[in-house]
Every structure is written in C-alpha cells, then in structure tokens.
Amino acid sequence: MFYRLTGVYQTDYAKDRALWPIPTDRWIALLLLAIAIAAPFIFQVHYVANYMLPWLIWSSAALALTLLMGVAGQLHFGFAAVMAIGAYSSIHLARFGVPFELALLGAGLISAVIGSIFGAAALRVKGLYLVMATLAMQYLVDWVIVNVPAISGGAQATLRTPDVSFLFIPLESVWLYYMALLWTVVVTLFVLNIKRSSYGRALVAVRDKDYAASIIGVSPFRYKLSAFFTSSFIGGISGAILAFCYYQAVTPEQFGFHVSIQLVAMVLVGGLGSVVGAYLGAGFVLLLPMILTNFVAGLGAMGILNVSASLLAHIPLMAYGALIIVFLLAEPLGLAKIYDNTRKYFLVWPFRHGQS
Fold first, then answer.
1. DSSP class per residue in 84-100
2. Rounded Cα gap, residues 313 and 74, in angstroms
C-alpha cells in the first residue's frame, strides 16, 4: 500500500520536525505541484484562466486569514479591506513608475501598517468586540475608496492595471497564471513552516490562553500585533496579485463586505488553522457556485428543468448553502478534517483495529 505507518522511526529532532514525515505526503505534494505547473499545457485555457487562476489567488488570501484566525486566534471580518488596500496601492505605485516587484512589497507594507492599526484593538478586546473593530475597518476603507477620487476615481469608476513585468518577464498570457502560482507556493511554504516554528508555537499559546502565555514570557502585545501585521502583509500582496493577474481592473464592489464573509467562510468550511483546508475551502466557496450554475444552466438548456430564469439563477445558491450546512453538520472541523480522516484510514488499512 502506498501509505504505511507502523511505528515511529525518527531518531533526531530534525526528522521529527520534518515538513512531511511520511514520504507519501511529500510525493503527493510534489505531484500536485507538477500538475499545477503543467496545467496550462494539460487543460484548456478557459479552465486555467477562470477556475485555477482565481482558486490559487483566493487560496493565498485564505492562507493569510488562516494564519490570523486559525493559528493566532484573532477574528477578522474585514479582510477584503486589507486586500483592497493592497490592490489600489500596487496599481498607484506601478503607475508612478515603481517596478512591479517593489510595488508588491509596498502594497504589502501599506496593508500591513493599516491592518495593524485596526488590529491594535485586539490588544484590548477579543471575540465579538474584535469583530466589530475589524468591521469598522471594512466600512471605513470602503467609504474612503468610494469617496476619495484620487484613490479609486469615484464610486462608479474602474481603475485599470498598467502593463508590468516581473523579473523582466511581461505579465501577460500564461505568465499571469505562473505569477499567481509562484505567490501561492511561497505563502503555502511560509504558513507550513511558521506553524512548526517557535514563533508559530507562541501564536498558538496566545490563541489558547493569552494571560497564561504572558506568565511564561510570551508577550501577547507583540505576538497579536505581529500576527495582524504578517497576515495583512500577505493579504495586501494577494490583493495586488488578484488585481494584476485576474481582474486586471478594480472597482470598489470587488472588495465589499460580502467578500470578507466569503473569506471567513473559506477558512471555516475548509478547516480552521489548516493549510490544506485553505485550499479546500477556497475551492468550495469559489468554484462550487460556478460549477453548480453551469450544471443547472445545462439542465435548463436541455429542458430538464422548466423553471423561470430568476429561480434558475437562485437554484445553485440554494444548493450551495445546503451543502455548506451538510458539511458543517457532518464534520464541524471542516473539509480538512474529512481529508485527515481519510488519510488516517489508509495509514493503517486494512487493519481497522489500529485506527484511533
């Protein structure tokens, strides 16, 4: 069997802390990476540009929110505002002639600074009160974008992204996909490694009991603020990548409150604190409505569903909402837990008595 785990063979800390202690996990990760790299040559351009590309970008944003909510335990219901800051900042920096590489870093830093200012509320409040503080950030950023023409051009204006290049390669055609893939891989490796570092363990300690963490020398002030800074930095660059590689033009409606709710849904449905869950949650929340819409439209075109156009448009949304409820009832810990249960089954298969 390709999965086999009988005993613990680690003889030093380096092997015990390996990213993928089981070789099969490493080979699965490498296989998925190879498929992602070869995707433009395997799949049709339509599927790569409209399905895989946005999935990668939103997965990187979900990973940023996973770091904040799942690892650090800080709620954030205004993360779309962080991405909006990164998107608009990168466009204006690129228009001023700043190289795209520096524009991305500048967008991330601006998002991180503003996100940390609102995240400072986490130093005094938590739970629903922190949610209100992050909601205030969402609505304030929305108001500024709409009412300051120097930023967005106006409430109904569309701000187009300029032509840029990354490492002297023009960002066009298939390179848009590879840029998103590169960023997502970097964020994935960062979150995977940070969870097993001393910094990640400190974030978990603050998440579980901040006052107990302070007793053993872990500063809740520093780590909460750094969690908001790091997450906002990644979210800001993800917003810039979303603007340049997918939308190629931004409007205020693209980063509204409903987008923040979708991001939170990606993290919760996928599995709080799970890297795999960020990918599964982003795919579920982003791609499933598209697939259901195309499926229902196909049934309507074949005459199988003879309903009004309005109802036809809402059937996928109703099915999508029902599936979320079913998944959360079946496994409250999210899609990542279902994947983990399946993986653990194969670790001891066919010896059912070995399952815990």
1. HHHHHHHHHHHHTT--H
2. 36
What is the reported pTM? 0.88
CA nearest 61: which of 212, 222, 260? 260
- CA 240 – CA 246 distance, rounded (Å): 10
5: which 2 tokens?
């785990």
> For residue range 130-173, what is the model confidence (pLDDT) as tens digits?
888 888 888 888 888 888 888 877 767 788 888 888 888 888 88
Answer yes or no: are the C-beta atoms of 198 and 100 closer than 8 Å: no
Sketch the domain layout of the chain as residue ranges: 46-354
Say which CATH architecture domain 46-354 belongs to: Orthogonal Bundle (1.10)
Distance (Å, rounded) from C-alpha 91 to C-alpha 153? 12
- Identify the CA nearest to 138 among candidates 260, 267, 263, 262: 260
Q: What are the start-end ranges of the E strands in the chain? A: 159-160, 165-166, 169-170, 249-250
